[in-house]
Design goal:
CATH class of the largest domain: Alpha Beta
Low-confidence stretches: none
Number of strands: 17
Bound molecules: adenosine-5'-triphosphate, magnesium ion
CATH architecture of the largest domain: 3-Layer(aba) Sandwich
Distance between the termini: 83 Å
Number of helices: 16
Helix content: 25-40%
Largest sheet: 9 strands, mixed
Structural class: alpha/beta
CATH superfamily of the largest domain: P-loop containing nucleotide triphosphate hydrolases
CATH topology of the largest domain: Rossmann fold
Number of domains: 3
Oligomer: single chain
Shape: elongated
Length: 510
């Protein structure tokens, strides 16, 4: 039963559709890209305001008798006294496959000179996160192709895993390699003409507050690796307004949600949320919102939590799509206890800690295995990987402890020496160059060999070289073995037997 009030509202709606959707208002004051507008009585938070001449703004502060809106493009032509219109539409971004391979701004306008984007579909930039009922627990892997990560802190589809570290510790590199690995899976699926089995992941890379040249480098690297085709790049660089930088990750989530809503899998990288927080602080200052700790506005925690909550693994009933998030945070001299880092740590399901010291020692990726975690854990690994990687984290922990102990120069028994030597080899295997993700089969084969002590007999400094030679041998001589691991996803007795034979064949040759 509708109440009378609702009836009346419906009648008004039918006869005057714009009655409470579109209104005109007048700019009382404009400065720093913020317009204070009177007369827009029914405007909603995040509603688009039409400033004429193709200039859009968003309503952000709703006060009793005025509205503050941030002008999204150049505000030079916007004048006091000018009439503006509310649109009744929340800020939105074009979505869909047409965006793949493109570089766009947070409103979906092309930045790559490749012409207009052919799509009619849009998603609101801000949208409530899926509820708990619609979600399922994370259960399938999002393989990064980076051995150290996939082996000891596996990431699942729908998870939020933070990449955190100081300047220039390889944070972006991890995200880009992950995107490249998804592209490889996409290519495999295309080659096999089958996406039902492999469920490839589409990626969204959001660059926030970076130099234009850094973004160009990322785009170039993705292109070179054939990954841009499966990726949407959303960029709001340091040269763009704080409002655009603030919007960028939300736009990225909206583009990722388009895939998730259709039962597909998407990955969103937010590079990085430290700069995002700074942009939000700046925007809040011009909006004259009160500030709190470290001068950040009080709702900064809510800002990042509502962004990251939008990542989800949907239940089968809700379509089964996923949106995985890899937010990035830059720390100052390793201080993870600062305000923004602790916030984002507490919102995510795990962290990849990168350390400058490791990076400079040549351990790249510079991931600290001891303190990095993934709370989804081995639920996000295929069985074969679980089997070979299960002990690795423990072995490494023991290695670090023994290594520290061994520095005192005391006599060590043979077993301890063997443990240290084994740990050194695993550390070597975990070193990996950029742009060369390992397929999961290759990861399984090398970890299996490592567990059998295969690398313990070779000089430490040759570990990487021999690994590559061995993998090449396997690809040439035992292609069916790799295929079988890919198909079975577990180590059957037959697979183990052929692994043994392959290792023996390789050894007999060298
Ligand atoms: N696994 C790796 N092997 C070799 N070089 C690497 C590796 N990972 C990163 N690098 C190099 O280290 C440098 C820093 O990497 P990257 O730009 O990814 O770091 P970042 O933490 O994102 O830096 P910023 O703080 O500037 O955003 C780059 O020159 C990159 O090529
Ligand atoms: Mg970076």
């Amino acid at each position: 039963m509708q109440s009378i009030v609702e009836d009346i509202e419906q009648v008004i709606e039918e006869f005057h559709p714009e009655a409470h959707h579109e209104e005109t208002g007048r700019i009382m004051e404009i400065g720093d890209g913020v317009a204070h507008i009177e007369g827009l009585r029914n405007v909603q938070l995040n509603e688009m305001i039409d400033f004429g001449h193709g200039i859009t703004g968003i309503a952000l502060n709703l006060e009793e008798d005025s509205v503050s809106a941030v002008v999204l493009s150049s505000a030079e032509t916007v004048r006091e006294g000018q009439i503006v219109r509310s649109t009744g539409r929340l800020l939105e971004i074009p979505c869909g496959r047409a965006l793949l391979g493109r570089v766009v701004d947070p409103l979906g306008r092309p930045l790559d000179g490749k012409g207009p984007i052919a799509t009619q579909e849009v998603n609101p930039i801000e949208r409530p996160a899926p509820g708990i009922i619609a979600r399922a627990s994370v259960s399938s892997p999002l393989q990064t192709g980076i051995l150290a990560i996939d082996a000891v802190i596996p990431i699942g589809r729908g998870q939020r895993e933070l990449i955190i570290g100081d300047r220039s510790t390889g944070k972006t590199a991890i995200a880009i390699d992950t995107i490249i690995n998804q592209a490889r899976l996409n290519q495999d699926a295309e080659a096999a003409d089958d996406t039902t089995e492999t469920h490839p992941v589409y990626s969204v890379y959001v660059a926030i507050g970076q130099r234009q040249s850094s973004v160009a480098q990322v785009v170039h690297a993705l292109e070179e690796c054939g990954a841009l085709k499966y990726t949407v790049v959303i960029a709001a660089t340091a040269a763009d307004s704080a409002a655009m930088q603030y919007l960028a990750p939300f736009s990225g989530a909206a583009v990722g949600e388009w895939f998730m809503d259709r039962g597909m899998d998407a990955l969103a990288v937010y590079d990085d949320l430290s700069k995002h927080a700074v942009a939000y602080r700046q925007m809040s200052l011009v909006l004259r919102r009160p500030s709190g700790r470290e001068a950040y506005p009080g709702d900064i925690f809510y800002l990042h939590s509502r962004l990251l909550e939008r990542s989800a693994c949907m239940s089968a009933a809700a379509g089964g799509g996923t949106l995985t998030a890899l937010p990035i945070i830059e720390t100052q001299t390793g201080d993870v206890s600062a305000y923004i880092p602790t916030n984002v740590i507490s919102i995510t399901d795990g962290q990849i800690y990168l350390e400058s010291d490791l990076f400079h020692e040549g351990i790249r990726p510079a991931m600290s295995v001891g303190i990095s975690v993934s709370r989804v854990g081995s639920a996000a690994q295929i069985k074969a990987m679980k089997e070979v990687a299960g002990k690795v984290k423990l072995e490494l922990a023991q290695y670090y402890e023994l290594k520290a102990f061994a520095q005192f120069g005391s006599d060590l028994d043979a077993k301890t020496v063997a443990q240290i030597e084994h740990g050194r080899r695993i550390t070597e295997l975990f070193k990996q160059g950029q742009y060369s993700p390992f397929p999961v089969e290759d990861q399984v084969v090398q970890l299996w060999a490592a567990q059998q002590g295969f690398f313990d007999q070779v000089p430490v400094e040759k570990t990487h070289e021999i690994r590559m030679k061995f993998l090449e041998f396997v690809h040439v001589q035992a292609k069916d073995l790799l295929e079988e691991i890919g198909r079975q996803k577990k180590l059957t007795p037959d697979i183990k037997k052929s692994l043994e034979e392959t290792v023996a064949n390789y050894q007999s040759l060298t």
